[in-house]
């Protein structure tokens, strides 16, 4: 079930109503059943994969706790759990990629092989496997007590608002909340509705309209000039942001209706002054996952520069591969890692000096924001390109075809939507939409609601753009 | 809770206001953008049509080599020159599309009769679950009966089936596999899929028993397309039922125009079993709708022969001109019931009011060298008429055409005399519409003739098209309506 569908708009109020009508002890079952329905709306049989992961990791958690005093056994169960979860990921997400590359390698050696598999990626696999792994790691480290109730554990992995595209939750936050008894609170309903409304605006009005231009230009590069492709790169930066940010906001809002607080996934990432800051603001749940479970175990930043650079590259390459099984994603992750290293090297060589005047500082900060945005935008091309040929064609057209081809014609409405988004981004730089609304007068607040409701209904794109992160 | 109820009330008020704003300033624009079929429905009012013809590509499809691109609806309109007829043509459309189109014909329209294309194939799973359905259904969302803002909300939140090609194919497969075939005798296969698979496996063989892979593919395609049994649960049946109800509510005469299928090929490829199902389905439709008050079903199923089907490699209802004309003629005979006074056979129209205007485009070539003829009897030539003004548009492929406007006079003794007026001097352009006019005197030979026929004649091998033929009889003292020139008659015998 996708958020921007009639089905979800019927499903969600029903679930919320049932949630508050049921006694606390029955809620987990209803939420689990609802989450199963939500997930099975896509391809029902894939729930079996989810079930395997849940059973293995649930059992591993219990066994690790039981053999806490026998480190070898504990480690064995930990490794079995991690390997089996990664095996699921490997089979369903990376096997097609690996076999296709093996075929190509063999072909280049003069051997004809047909190893290529055609496995369909179950929706949200990368998200729920990572969420499940975070539980196992936390239990292994002794930071989290193993969950004894299978239903609660299953619900922790399958909680429908964040099941398919995150935020990737930690047991300390979500599992704890699942056990808590939530009482009906108007504030939660209000905040949840605000977030959902804002999420719909960002996804359906801004992201989907931008997607129409991006698909058109990237799909017909030969027809457009460099200015159009460059414009399209910027549009894609906003499209992917709005698409993912929109989903995360709706997820947060949906959970909030039932009193659950999910972690924030975005904090105005395009206002970041450098790439490190960007990753503190973009897809925060994934960044912190890699930080806690890969980067720090590798040594983090408390090592020599060379080792640190290696750690960074490992983390970003893994992050790239996590997104998609393609060389372009790997390159995208590598580019981010490299930029991170270069920026740090430059900072240590040329330490930043605080400008004397306020306006000078603002100007320097603005330049840094623009610089980071430009670089991130260029890197998004790797993320969007279907393969290396497409990537090459995009960059070639972007920088060599200023005189030929058509100019992308952008409707005035698009600038209004984009302007609205940027304005909101600036206004919400230190807060979230639901909290921001608390601070404005009632009449203005309702005017904003009315405008957003109207835009979501009357101005949303009618093109069908699935959430971009669904493919991961 | 009180706070919540107040907020719900505020939301409702807000939605009412927003609906008003949307209806006033945005809805029509959205309709034109996302549901353009509604423009066709609106056009009906603009054009003051009395008959409307709803069709899919069978109506507007013509052969690549054809010069005459007129539709079935156009040919039908020729039979009723005094009745305004419009067409609402939507490629790949079907009963559900037509229902929504009809629903949006404004109440102020002058429509009296509705002709709805009934395509036998459209009842089959291959069409019901066609890959085009997502786009078609999306077009209908804004046309629902809800308030405009609700319709836009449904469109925004994708309240239509969004399936990809594979998913539609899977649905079609499921129904081909699941839906039973209704044979009154023992039939080898339980469902369409089994039948199709057996044909693919065994292959189609000609009279000499020789396997033909291309014909096997076609035979499978014909089985897929026609090998089903219509039941009361068929979605298209429900749509046609809804059309019947709607037409009753609106007080319209309803004619279902059951299109011709290539039964020659169906017989050759699918044999008696496939023919049985086609006839069974036809009978089902005739029985279900033919007996209803206010509903007429025109059965064209086997009227068009194989040679008149444009697509010879798969199943369509795309006809060459002759096929389109045959269906139009058959349909016109039914419409004649509603408009007996207005009916004229376009091939022998009797002029009775002194002015005749015919918009139809007609191709004149070696096979069909004559245009529609205006036939007059001697007593219809009024004494005060002194001149006949003739004007028509003509398009020639090259300058080799030899076209004349002919006045054929038959006297009491049965002697025939033809005066022919060459258009060559006036028409020089090729591949563009040009204009020819003639002013012909009504002399003693006119008055002494028993029967007079007026028509355009192409006596060359080079084809031409004509349209907008305007013939006006005028009193001698009035100036001609068009810039008239008199031309000498040319001798057809030597072609000068």
Head-to-tail CA distance between termini of chain A = 16 Å
**Helix-strand topology string of chain A:** HHHHHHHHHHHHHHHHHH
Total DSSP helices of chain A: 18
Q: In the residues of chain A, how many domains can be counted? A: 2
Spatial strand arrangement across the major sheet of chain B: 2-1-3-4-5
Number of helices of chain B: 16
Q: What structural class is derived from the secondary structure elements of chain B?
A: alpha/beta
Biggest sheet of chain A, open or closed, and with what strands and sense? none
Structural class of chain A: mainly alpha
Mean of all residue-level pLDDT scores of chain A? 91
Spans of chain B with pLDDT under 50 lasting ≥5 residues?
348-352, 477-496
- Cα shape of chain A: globular
- List how many beta strands of chain A DSSP finds: 0
Measured by residues with Cβ under 8 Å of the partner chain's Cβ, the largest interface is:
A-B, 19 and 24 residues
- Identify the CATH class of the largest domain in chain B: Alpha Beta
CATH architecture name of the largest domain in chain B = 3-Layer(aba) Sandwich
CATH topology of the largest domain in chain B: Rossmann fold
Instruction: Let me know the largest β-sheet of chain B.
Output: 5 strands, parallel
* Portion of residues within helices of chain B: 25-40%
What oligomeric assembly is this protein in?
heterodimer
